[in-house]
Amino acid sequence: xxxxxxxxxxxxxxTTTSVVTAVAPGMFATAxxxxxxxxxxxPADVGWVDDVTITGISVDEHDQVWHHSPAQxxxxxxVVLTIDAHHRTIxxxxxxxxxxxxxxxxxxxxAWLTGAAITTTYGRIDVAVPQLDASMIADLQxxxxxxxxxxxxxxxxxxxxxxxxxxxxxxxxxxxxxPVYHGQIRVVEIVGxxxxxxxxxxxxxxxxxxxxxxxxxxxxxxQNKRLYVRFDAH
Length: 234
Ligand SMILES: [Zn+2]
What we know:
Elements: E1 4-5, E2 15-24, E3 27-30, E4 32-33, E5 47-49, E6 52-54, E7 56-59, E8 65-68, E9 78-83, H1 85-109, E10 112-118, E11 123-128, H2 134-149, E12 154-160, H3 161-165, E13 180-181, E14 184-190, E15 194-197, E16 212-219, E17 224-231
Helix pairs in contact: 1-2
The protein binds zinc ion.
Zinc ion (ZN) is lined by residues 95, 99, 188, 198, 200, 202.
């Protein structure tokens, strides 16, 4: 039985009570789960089932969400699933910051996104651009913080795959197909700034990200550059 993924329509809900639908050694599935399953460079959530840790998440071919945990639970049992809010908040902040940065890279330098990764200490994107000099990095950082402090609302909604095909503006990657889920593609909109296809979790308003710095760049090939973002400590 497929697990209802709460984060897809409410990425602010961090806990739920649900029924165990399947068990296997070291893991269990539930009817519903707020846990982000991982993808698009964002790590899966961690957290707890009742008071026992959940250390990882996987999804099977039946779209069941499996929670990896030493907890002893039985099919039919009601459990409380709770996400580690600190972990979720930090990755959501970095994730939303990367939306802003990849949009600015495309708008200012025609640089398409080629990859992304998010951790609890930094976020990074790879973009297709032949050169990335100090003035470009300064421009991206200044522009990113202007969007953050302007405090745009962030919202998400789903559109049909057929409609998505008519909306090339929602694409940020040229080498990765957008995540299609039950025939729908999720769109994440930073209202008044950008909308793009994305299945991850985000903050509710851009000011929640906090100001950021682009603290490192790497040359990942003639046409590929990597930018690292972290929260500005100052
Ligand atoms: Zn996203």
